[in-house]
Design goal:
The protein is α/β, with parallel strands linked by helices. It is built from three helices and seven strands; from the N terminus they run βααββββαββ. The protein has helices at residues 8-37, 46-71, 123-128; strands at 5-6, 73-74, 89-95, 100-106, 117-119, 136-141, 144-155. Helix 1 packs antiparallel against helix 2 (46-71). The chain is elongated, with a radius of gyration of 21 Å. The two termini are 31 Å apart. The model has no long low-confidence stretch (mean pLDDT 92).
């Protein structure tokens, strides 16, 4: 089970996706399905079959987004968090080999197609929670334990960029 948390920016992105699917893509595909159906025999009509399949995908995603957005809790960064790693933090880390890594701790719904984002439920995020700059975090990996030192912690403004 994924923790139902999301950043304000992540929630805004889900709203934008839902809006696009409902107001733009779904009407376009519906019109294509109606056009393809008007051509007659649907059993061998590739346009009809493909657009009907896409319409089902869109409807499935719309249903998922509506249900998911109802249970998600938007977490605004608070001034008390600054200086420590909590949900929504962008953290720069360095390991013993002096490799640097920057990750943003977000909700499960935000990690897809967002390079550098990790889920609050991931082992690294759990190890980083409540750490401050110069603190070490022990992260268990399949290759063995790795120590990461917190170099920097930042929080984005709570208002999503439009």
């Amino acid at each position: 089970m994924n923790t139902p948390l999301i950043t304000p920016q992540g929630f805004y992105q889900l709203q934008q996706e839902l809006e696009y699917l409902w107001r733009t893509e779904r009407p376009e595909i519906t019109a294509k399905v109606a056009w393809a159906a008007s051509l007659g025999d649907r059993s061998e009509n590739a346009d009809y079959k493909e657009n009907k399949r896409r319409l089902r995908e869109i409807d499935r995603r719309i249903r998922y987004l509506k249900k998911r957005m109802d249970v998600l809790k938007v977490i605004e960064p608070s001034p008390e968090q600054h200086g420590q790693v909590f949900f929504g933090a962008t953290v720069t880390l360095e390991n013993d080999d002096e490799q640097q890594l920057t990750v943003k701790i977000v909700g499960y719904d935000e990690i897809f197609n967002n390079k550098g984002c990790i889920s609050i439920d991931s082992p690294m995020a759990r190890a980083l929670l409540k750490k401050s700059v110069n603190d070490e975090a022990l992260v268990a990996t399949p290759a063995g334990d790795v120590y990461w030192t917190v170099i920097n912690i930042q929080y984005e403004p709570s208002k999503p960029q439009e």
